[in-house]
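Record type: monomer structure entry
Structure origin: computed from sequence
Chain ID: A
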Amino acid sequence: MKKLNYIISLLFILISINMKSSNIEYRKIYTKEKKVIFFGNSITQSWSDYTDFFNKNGYINKGISGQTTDQMLLRFKEDVVNENPYCVVILAGINDLAENNGPISLEDIFENIKSMIKIANDNNIKVILSSILPAYEFLWNPGIYPSNDIIFLNKNFIEYCKSGNAIYVDYHSSMKDKRDGLKDELTYWRDDFNGYDGVHPNKKGYLKMEKIISKTLKKIL
């Protein structure tokens, strides 16, 4: 009788261990299948050139160089919604401030971004809204100094995200210099302009961004 009880107890323990192991494996598989899209402009597009962040984690890069928020809004359904992701990370606005397609109001920039978020919300896609990275000037379009407008938009992003429609991620605070531009150590030198790019991160800049965004992704995946 004692031997029978021992065998039953041992079987129960083995079954319990197997169930726990199966649950752990299930969680790993489920997390891995939660598709994440990074949606943006050249800052997003170039990210894959500097690190293995996307390949290593299975994230999808949907950045297109030079695009403004209105252009991004036009392709949001095709590049994001149709991919059926669990989450989209939006980083947008700097090219609007650089007037790549001509002048645009801060209100219109914000409305374009809110429209993207609404489309995502309507399709049950979680949204992470990134702060616009710091920038003091644009080497390719001199005479524009966007630092104050960036701060203004980021403050609006923070307030908007309090509604629960998106999660705000702050790159700006830890990447800015005393002029509210991008730190020289986080961008790269451009011989064609004889100066630091000041808008696009270098490898060190992207690694810093990865640490910041990974903390948020870890919480929701």
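Annotation 1: Residues 2-32 form the longest helix (31 residues).
Annotation 2: Residues 35-220 form a domain with the Rossmann fold fold (CATH 3.40.50.1110).
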